[in-house]
Design a protein that fits this description.
- This protein is of the alpha/beta class.
- It has 21 helices and 15 strands.
- Helix content is 44%, strand content 16%.
- The radius of gyration is 29 Å and the shape is elongated.
- It starts with a helix and ends in a 6-residue tail after the last helix.
Length: 505
């Protein structure tokens, strides 16, 4: 009686000579790949700059900039590197190169790469798409393996190899950062200016043992927080290598256009915090007499991005209308849905009836809402026509007196313009929890951070008049005025309740 083993042997087909040849070639190729892998790791394990310059397929004139090479060499030597600089210097590219270098040179060992950022969107929209992009430009023959497998090794927000993983973590969850232990660990803190101190402290524990590296890069914000402390070389942070990439270096490297720099200088003025942060890479939150800090506006921009991603259904409130007074100015419409300015619409050289038509178009489409219109000058005709058509209008006269007080109940306001701008300040204050969302419009950001304030001798808050701001920054802050008007509390009790329905009182 034949056994199962004998039956199986009887029916087993012998390998053909061709199959044997293929098998020998695969075995040889596998052996060669292992040799290449070993040589790759030995060559690049502690040299990220060499990995980037030699293991990516670069076109003519392409390659890392001199300051990026310097930063990678500093990471090799110091293990802790903190870099600040302007928008566009190549921070996300740099971080993506370092993630790929670390993962591929440690594969086969116990390794992890936690990546985090001040805003989740920085990871989902910039860093991890950049990692996927650069993985496609690696010379895999030099690495000794095939390209990363999409969906199995390279996912949307993680890179999983045989013995380790790179992954995204929210910066407000320090416990997850603290729990990321491995023999080889690399922390990437991208756009790290407002990452909480608790998260930095959580990562610190992993730096005491094993093969540990840390790269922090960001455009700067105000002079506060852990990122600032490291850049300022405060006591206790002497083991960090610190670098400020100047805008001139980024322009010379072809990363930033000199024309863009000059355009932003004209748009924002060199003294503004937004120009200092985003173009010069300096820490600045504006003068003490600025009405609205830049950091508050940037936080509102992040909430707008989140609103765009989620698209919740919101109730339309109304539209702020700043009517152009002069030839170079634009008429601005700011559309408000609850606590969100959904968009800004700009119109040039429109007469009263055309402007009215645009406002009517918005209100009729929503079938409700109020138009808050700057009534001074050309706006008076718009107000009159909207009333004739039966629409609800709040004629905004910046010089009108008001009895409304600030949140403390102690300070009054010189006029309605002062009330409107201070109400926006209080609504954007992170301590209030109102969570306004504003579009990341360059002109709007500049407008909101431009006005200054002071208190008068009779205990009233006075905001710079529009003409004063225009003289100082070289243009009219029309977008900012349209936004603050549509959030301004109204004097009439019935209207005040409506204006404050979403928390702005």
């Amino acid at each position: 009686m034949p056994t199962n083993r004998n039956v199986a042997r009887a029916f087993r087909r012998a390998e053909t000579p061709q199959e044997k040849l293929v098998k020998r070639k695969r075995a040889k190729a596998g052996s060669l790949n292992e040799e290449v892998r070993a040589e790759f790791k030995a060559r690049y394990r502690n040299d990220p700059a060499a990995f980037v310059t030699e293991c990516f397929r670069w076109g003519d004139g392409e390659g890392p900039s001199p300051y990026q090479i310097e930063i990678m060499q500093a990471l090799q030597e110091h293990r802790r590197v903190c870099v600040r600089g302007p928008h566009g210097l190549g921070k996300s590219s740099l971080c993506s190169w370092i993630v790929l270098w670390f993962a591929l040179t440690r594969d086969g060992e116990d390794w992890k790469v936690p990546t985090t950022a001040s805003a989740w969107r920085q990871l989902t929209k910039f860093l991890w798409p950049e990692i996927r992009k650069w993985s496609n430009r690696i010379d895999w023959a030099r690495v000794g393996r095939g390209p990363l497998a999409e969906g199995r090794e390279l996912l949307m927000l993680s890179l999983k190899l045989g013995t380790g993983e790179a992954f995204a973590l929210a910066s407000n969850q320090p416990a997850l950062i603290e729990g990321a232990h491995a023999d080889n660990i690399l922390y990437i803190f991208d756009e790290s200016k407002t990452i909480p101190s608790e998260t930095w402290d959580a990562a610190e524990g992993a730096m005491s043992t094993g093969d540990a590296w840390w790269l922090s890069v960001s455009t700067p914000g105000g002079p506060a927080g852990r990122f600032y402390d490291i850049q300022a070389r405060k006591p206790g942070f002497g083991d960090w290598w610190v670098r400020h990439v100047k805008v001139e270096e980024a322009v010379a490297a072809g990363r930033i256009s000199a024309d863009w720099v000059e355009a932003r200088r004209t748009q924002w003025t060199e003294a503004s915090p937004v120009f200092q942060n985003r173009v010069l890479g300096n820490f600045s939150e504006g003068s003490e007499d600025s009405v609205i800090p830049l950091a508050w506006v940037e936080a509102a921009n992040e909430r707008w991005y989140a609103w765009q991603d989620e698209k919740p259904v919101l109730t339309f409130f109304g539209v702020g209308v700043d009517v152009a007074r002069y030839g170079a100015d634009s008429t601005i419409l700011a559309l408000r849905f609850e606590n969100v300015i959904s968009e800004l619409r700009r119109f040039r050289k429109q007469d009263t009836m055309q402007t009215t038509g645009f406002v009517v178009g918005v209100l009729s489409a929503q079938k409700r809402g109020i138009a808050v219109v700057d009534v001074i000058g050309m706006g008076a005709g718009v107000v009159d026509r909207l009333r004739e058509l039966g629409y609800t209008v709040d004629p905004f006269n910046s010089s009108t007196r008001t009895d409304i007080k600030d949140k403390s109940g102690e300070l009054g306001f010189l006029n309605r313009r002062s009330l409107a701008w201070w109400a926006m300040r209080e609504a954007l204050d992170p301590q209030t929890g109102l969570e306004l969302a504003l579009p990341p419009d360059d002109e709007l950001i500049g407008d909101l951070t431009a006005p200054q304030w002071r208190t008068t001798s009779n205990g009233s808050i006075r905001i710079e008049e529009k003409e004063e701001v225009k003289k100082r920054i070289g243009r009219s802050p029309d977008a900012g005025d349209a936004v603050v008007m549509v959030f301004c509390p109204q004097e009439k009790p019935a209207q005040k309740k409506r204006a404050g329905a979403w928390g702005v009182n």
